[in-house]
Fold:
Amino acid sequence: MDLDTLVTRLDGRLRTDAYADLDASANGLQVDGPEEVTRVALAVDAARATAEAAADQDADLLLTHHGIVWGGLDRVTGRTYDRLAPLFDGNCGLYVSHLPLDGHEELGNAAGVCDVLGVTEREPFGTLGTETVGLRGQVSRQPVGAAVDKLESVLSPGRGVRLLSFGPEKVDDMAVITGSGADFLDEAATVDVDLFVTGEGKQQVYHEAREAGLNVALAGHYATETFGVRAVGALLTEWGVETTWIDHPTGL
Structure:
């Protein structure tokens, strides 16, 4: 597929422009690539390791959730150069979708977590300006421990999910903000969910959850953000583009 056509279709499907004034990430095409794209490598992070892997796999484009350009790019030196050099050497572009991919109701990271937990009656959650970056919904009154077991079995086998157990023992309503979503705990408490799932926490989350009487599951930043790029990969396959998955977990 022609690169310009691919970028236009992705930007439209992911609503990239809607987050332009809300996201520090420069979403969309961050590094130009070959005119024709036949193979796309998928990864959570645009790092030296994933860029090298994409080049080794002869990918024409690396598509990631976390990109290289955050709030501007002053110099292409040091670590920035090290990340970009494999892309230039391998004639591989870089496409990034950060917040647009977090809350996308079909392709997003939160949607993937909701699929794992069997969340129904979903609606947008996690207000950021005029947009949202997560989802909330219903589950069939399951013990909070059972929900955590589901998360562990899919997201973190052998690693575990940290549960701050300060809410009800059985869960009816939950909200999901993947990655670093701890700042949305107050919104979760305000809408009275039983379980708030995010990737990683901050020191104050313990006390905030306890004072709000809210269960919080910390399932890992990387682990909760593998869903979106994989879902986009499935979409690309439907469009006739070959994809390959680069798994480079951080353990965080």
